[in-house]
Design a protein that fits this description.
The chain is mainly alpha-helical. Helix content is 63%, strand content 0%. It is globular.
Amino acid sequence: LELVAREGTGSVRDSISLLDQLIADPDVPITLDLAERALGTASGQNVVELIDALIAGDAAHGLDLINLSVDGGADPRQFGRQVVEYLRQLLLLHMAGDDLVDVTAERRAVLHEQAGHIGRAAVLVAIRAFNAALQEWQSGWQPQLPLELAFLDSLRQMFELDAEPAPVERPRVAARPAPAAKAPAATP
C-alpha cells in the first residue's frame, strides 16, 4: 500500500488505477515483489545498495546495480525518482532528524547507518546529479545512461569534496590599541 501511495504521487485516482493494475487476477496474492514488477519500480533494496556503492566509491558495483535494475524490468526514470527520494530522505535526516522522514523502522535504521558515512554536501551533490538526469531525460537507445552518468558524476564530485582541504580556522588576533596621539612639539 505504501508503494502504491508513493507511486500515485498524491492523486487518489492514480492510486486507484495502480491498485486496479495489481488486482488484474484475483487469484494471485498481491506481494511487494509483484507490485514492484507491475509498477515498474526497482526493489527498494537496489536503491539502498546503490547508495552504499556511492558511499563506498564503488563505481563498478553502482553501475552494475543500475543495469541489473533496468534489465530486471524497472523503468529507468522511476528508478531515478526512487534514488532522488531516498537521497532526499537522507538529507532530511541530516538536516532535521527523524521528524520529517516517514519510513519504516527498518528503513530508518538503514538511513541512520548511511547518514553516518556520507556528509550533507555529498548528499546534495548526488541529489542534484540524479535530479538533473531526470529533468534532462531524452528517450535514447540506452535508457539507463542518464542514471549511470548521474552516478559517476556524483562519485567524481564527492571525490573532489573529499580532496578539498578542510577550512583552516585562523586564531583571532587581539585588536591593537590605537596609537597614542602625539603631543604637539613645544616651541622653543
